[in-house]
Amino acid sequence: MMLVESVICGVIFLLTKGARCEVTELIAEAGSQVVLPCKCEASQCDPAAITWSKNDKGTVWRKQSSGLQYWGSNWFGKGDTRVRCPHSEFAKGDYSLQINGLKEEDGGLYTCKVELRGHVTYTKVMLRVLKVSISPSAPMWGELVSTQCTLTPRLDGAVVQWMLNSYPLGPKTPGVINLNEGHLTAKAADKLAGTWTCLVHKSKNVWQASVELSVKGIIQPPKDDTKLYAALGSPFTMPCVFSPGFSPTRTLVEKLNSRIPQVFNNRSSSSSSWDKSIIIQEVVPENEGKYTCTGTTKGRRLTRTMHLVVAKIVMSKKKGSMMLSCQLSDSSEVTDYEWVHVSYDINGTKSVGPILHGQTVSVKESGGEWMCRYIGKNGLLGNVTTQVHFMAGLSGEKSSGVSSNTGTVIGLSFLLVILLLILAQMYKNHQRRKRILQYPALETIVHTVSNEREEREKNRLKE
After folding, report:
1. Of 241, 291, 404, 429, which sees the most CB atoms within 10 A?
2. For residue 452, what pLDDT is reported?
């Protein structure tokens, strides 16, 4: 191709007085904007006549020395021109051609002809269009996907490489069935969803084009064995969401690895036909474990697995303080724990204290609400809260109050004992009086003796 272009330029140079021929190589991605360079190097470039043409489509755009502009019939339609030369650059001698919404058929050899005071300059630009296509663009799980990378016109000696989400793809990549440079066939799966990039290498130059591939199926949870986090005692929604537009049948959310498989039918409030999530009204320790979300759509049975992790806060007293421990049934994804103290004043205004770190923290005289946030490498995984109530005796200041209460209790106990003794003596006197009343003569004798004793006492005092 380059040899043919050189011959053409040589012929133009010989046949045209003062002509100059330059060749520029450009590669651009389909759908993008590209600028084909063409500049006048004379000290005074106005007024000049410029003509842009394509080897197989004739005139693209031209401007007469009078300033009138024309577009070729293949490049102008319904008032929308995909090609233009910015007027503001004409005075600077810049007649570069701008093409918007680049198409595959736009690839080819372009010529910019500049006529200025009998001097003619030819600038040639080889435009190659790089395009990546996927069919079907949104396959279902298990369907075959065909991807193709094309360069129009072809570039001899170019090497094609494939990338998926910035990682190289090869024949041994899971899901890849056939890899033949510009063409790749794979079986649709979650791991193949994302950005597919075709890289074209030639010498030290690299060009690339990308396209997005989305795989239809179950979108929530996003992948198998996804860990979900729920706080003990709180409600939780177990996700089971299919691609929008799907109306799956025989959907089921089931807990596995239990003696009797647990099937949940308490659906979420979503009205969409593809959201089959279920609600656990109150999480209990037994909810921890592995679950599946399954459903049938377009004759294909789809399944997604997930693991529910239950979180709780365990409290214990230790040397005048309260120990709070954040415990998860599976902490393999946790990289850090953050503790936040939330309190409210008499007006209900909320305030947040400083953040503490660690799975277990010591709390002193800081009752109220404590929240444990567990963090993973990609951010927050979840949180769990608890209410802390401090009892008397947890601090030294409250110990004196305990001693004072102990003294009061002892004093009341002493008075109670005296009262019981008095009551016992009164009971004994009452019983004795009852026995005496049974013998009237004895009672007379007792009274007589008692009166005589009193008389003797009075006479002795008088003496």
Report:
1. 291
2. 74
Tell me how far the alpha carbon of residue 220 is from its chain's centroid: 12
Secondary structure class of 99 (helix, strand, coil):
strand
Is 184 inside a domain boundary?
yes
DSSP state of 400: H
pLDDT at res. 12: 42
Query: Do 90 and 189 lie in a common domain?
Result: no
Query: Which CATH number goes with the domain that contains 242?
Result: 2.60.40.10
The alpha carbon dihedral of 272, 276, 281, 285 has a sign of negative
Residue 107 belongs to a domain: yes
Q: What is the CA radius of gyration of the chain?
A: 47
Above 60 in pLDDT, residue 397? no
Q: Is 90 found in the same domain as 175?
A: no
Q: How many helices (H) and strands (E) does the chain have?
A: 3, 34
Among 245, 280, 309, the domain-final residue is 309
Write out pLDDT tens, residues 147-173: 999 999 999 999 999 999 989 888 888
> What is the predicted pLDDT for the residue at 438?
55
Bridge partner residues of 187 (DSSP): 144
Query: What's the pLDDT band for 10 if we cut at 50, 70, 90?
Result: very low
In percent, how much of the chain has pLDDT > 90?
37
Does the pLDDT at position 289 exceed 90? yes
Q: Is residue 25 a contact partner of residue 109, using CB atoms and an 8 Å limit? A: no
- Token pair of 53, please? 């043409």
pLDDT tens string 214-273? 888 999 998 889 999 999 999 999 999 999 888 888 888 888 876 655 666 556 666 688
Last residue of a domain, one of 129, 144, 163: 129
DSSP 247: -
Domain co-membership, 232 together with 305: yes
For residue 100, give both structure tokens: 């918007």
Percentage of the residues of the chain whose pLDDT score is greater than 70: 81
Do 261 and 364 have their domain in common?
no
Distance CA 248, CA 271 (A): 14
Q: Which residue has the tokens 């006479």?
A: 459
Structure tokens at 252: 């089921």
Domain count, the chain: 4
The span from the CA of 131 to the CA of 97, in Å, is 21
What is the span of the domain harbouring residue 240? 218-309
Distance CA(251)–CA(248), nearest Å, equals 7
Task: Say yes or no: 71 and 8 in one domain.
Answer: yes
Contact 339, 372 (CB under 8 A): yes
